[in-house]
Every structure is written in C-alpha cells, then in structure tokens.
Amino acid sequence: MIEIKVCMGSACFLKGNQANLEYIRKYIEENNLAAEVKIIGGLCENKCEQGPRIVVNGKEYIQVTDEQIKQILKKQK
Ligand code: FES
User: Fold this and answer.
1) Within 13 A of 65's CA, how many CA atoms are on the CB side?
2) β-strands 2-7, 37-42: how paired?
3) Half-sphere exposure (CA, 13 Å, Cβ side) for 18?
C-alpha cells in the first residue's frame, strides 16, 4: 500500500500536478491498483519553485514528471 500526496496548491497544480493527478488516477484504474494506492491532496508547503511536488510514503519528489510517476507506480505491481 502506498500513499501519494499530490500538492494541490495553485503553483504545483498549474505546473503539472493537475495532469499528474489525472495520470495517477488513470494508471490506478487501468492496472487495478485501487486497493494498493491511496491518493490524497496536499496543501501548499511553500516549496512552489520546486513544483510540481508529490510525496510518496513520506518521500518527497520534486519537479515530477509522468515518467517518474510511472516508475513509482510500477513498483506496486
Ligand atoms: S503549490 Fe505546491 S508547494 Fe506551493
């Protein structure tokens, strides 16, 4: 089980987390990972210049791309 916190602050959201969130949701659906992955929305933590940011099980990833997300989610299968 992993928990992915996606920063939903406006900077991260516009810098890519809107698309990243969609990507994560789609990946979970296509790979039947709903029981394995929990998505939560995070608030801005004033690290906007490093955005888009996500935190996976407490580990922070900055300037996240969908390719990185794919690698993270792949490990769940
Ligand atoms: S919007 Fe994500 S850290 Fe500020």
Assistant:
1) 3
2) parallel
3) 5
Phi, psi of 55 (to 5 degrees): -125, 120
What counts of helices (H) and strands (E) characterise the chain? 3, 4
Q: Measured from the CB, is residue 55 less than 6 Å from ligand 1?
A: no
**CB distance 7 to ligand 1 below 6 Å:** yes
- pTM exceeds cut of 0.85: yes
Residue 74 Cα, ligand 1 centroid: separation in angstroms? 25
Fold of 2-74: Glutaredoxin (3.40.30)
- Residue 77 is predicted with a pLDDT of 63
CA dihedral 49, 55, 60, 63 (to 10 degrees): -40
Q: Answer yes or no: are the C-beta atoms of 44 and 17 closer than 8 Å.
A: no
